[in-house]
Amino acid sequence: MESLCLRGERVILCPLQELLTDENLRRIYSWHRDQEIMFWMGCRPVRSSFANFASWFRCAVRKLSTEMAFGIINGGGELIGRISCYGLDEAKKEAEIGILIGEKGFWGKGYGQDALVTFLRYLFEEVGLRKVRLRTLYKNLRARRCFSRCGFQESRRLTLSLEIGEVPGVEMTLSAEDFYKTFDKRRPPCKSDSS
After folding, report:
1. 35-84 residue pLDDT tens
2. Residue 141 phi/psi, 5° resolution?
3. Predicted pLDDT at 185
4. How many CB atoms lie within 10 A of CB 15?
5. Contact 113, 144 (CB under 8 A)
6. DSSP assignment of 147-174, as one string?
7. Which long-range contacts (CB under 8 A, 24 or more apart) does 85-91 make?
8. pLDDT in tens, 2-32
9. What DSSP letter does each residue of 76-115 carry, written as one string?
10. Are 105 and 37 in contact (CB under 8 A)?
11. Are 147 and 116 in contact (CB under 8 A)?
12. What is the DSSP letter of 49?
């Protein structure tokens, strides 16, 4: 059976459900136990055992459509993060996205931006979305810069109710039209099929 993988310039996005090996689950578990990573996600670090976490995470990923939750793989074949789309409004052709680069050694080096552009191209070209939005902590300047480079504009400031409490946040939006003003549509498509 062939799976949908999306190829960027620096990363490949593959269905997350297919990447949940014991090794990758342990990697994801370490991200969820890291205080800094979880702070930027608005969560508290996981304190449960690996077995409990793995069971919970597998269940959470199963609830997402295979076409909407991807692992971010670097050029060396290593899982470095994840990206997903949820809250789909089929009538308006809008949805929310989330991204996490869990391997800190890849922060600030363009991997998140490449994963985001690759995923956005897929969502606009293949899924047919017209607009996407995301939310992040207002203090997360690194993420906000990345999102801005991908064409996102701040649409509103809001208070986010997260595990870590009520925190100032920002919602950013991007339309397909604005995406293509930033990224030329004539660029070769990112879709590739691999087994």
Report:
1. 999 999 889 999 999 999 999 999 988 887 767 899 999 999 999 999 99
2. -65, -35
3. 55
4. 20
5. no
6. HHHTT-EEEEEEEEEETTEEEEEEEEEE
7. 85/119, 85/123, 85/127, 85/129, 85/132
8. 578 999 999 999 999 999 999 999 999 999 9
9. TS-EEEEEEEEEEETTTTEEEEEEEE--GGGTTTTHHHHH
10. no
11. yes
12. -
| Helix axis angle, 141-149 to 111-122, nearest 10° | 50
Maximum Cα–Cα distance for the chain, whole Å?
48
The encoded tokens of residue 97 equal: 């996205």
Edge-to-edge order in the sheet of strand 94-101 = 153-162, 165-175, 131-137, 94-101, 79-89, 69-73, 12-15, 3-7, 191-194
Specify which residues 170 forms β-bridges with: 136, 157
User: Which amino acid is present at 90?
Assistant: E
What 3-state DSSP class applies to 23?
helix
Half-sphere exposure of 18 (CA within 13 A, CB side): 17
Cα separation, 136 vs 74, in Å, equals 24
Contact 6, 192 (CB under 8 A): yes
pLDDT tens by residue, 85-116: 999 999 999 999 999 999 999 999 999 999 99
Name the token pair of 173: 């939006």
Tally of residues, the chain: 195
